[in-house]
Amino acid sequence: MLRQATAPGPAGRIDRADLDATLARVTALAHVMDQAITIPGTNVRMGLDAALGLVPVIGDIVSQAIASYIIWEARRLGVPRLTIMRMIANSAIDTVIGAVPLAGDLFDIAYKANVKNLRLLQHHLERSGARSGGAVVDGTWERIG
Question: Which of 55, 89, 117, 118 could form a disulfide with 30 if both were Cys (CB 3.0 to 4.6 A apart)?
Fold first, then answer.
């Protein structure tokens, strides 16, 4: 028998195991896209988003497509439209400014739209009571307490 979580999705309630698995996937994706690698000799972290940005046009399109998965999962978990719009804005800013040669690549390293979107999702889940006692630390979900 499936246990029920408190995060409503578009089709009803989300199973706790599904919620945990989804959050783990989204957390891992945000980490890989924005913070997977520390630039040697610095405390600056970058991910696949910045590396894909080095490939003109196609890299930014691929990066946006991957980032859209986080937004899709957030919508599936019942995140309100206003928060979804904020997530879309974060990704759009990252894509548009990231498309500018060189300056956009530096912006991709600093902006971290995927981690911002993960934090918006986490905040919604905590506010709705679906998840509590956790935090996003360096792009990964950690249980506190």
Answer: 118
Six token digits for residue 139 = 């792009």
In degrees and rounded to multiples of 5, residue 51 shows phi and psi of -65, -45
Q: Which residues contact 30 (CB under 8 A, 6 or more apart)?
A: 70, 114, 115, 117, 118, 139
DSSP 3-state assignment of 75? helix
Q: What are phi and psi of 134, to 5 degrees?
A: -130, 170
The residues, any chain, with a CB within 8 Å of residue 2's CB and separated by 6 or more, are: 15, 17
Q: 27: closest CA among 112, 143, 122, 140?
A: 140
Query: Is 60 within 8 Å of 99 (Cβ atoms)?
Result: yes
pLDDT in tens, 14-52: 788 889 999 999 999 999 999 999 999 999 999 999 999
* Domain limits, the chain: 14-143
Q: Which two tokens stand for residue 79?
A: 């995140």
3-state secondary structure of 137: strand
Yes or no: say if 68 and 30 are a contact pair by the CB < 8 Å rule: no
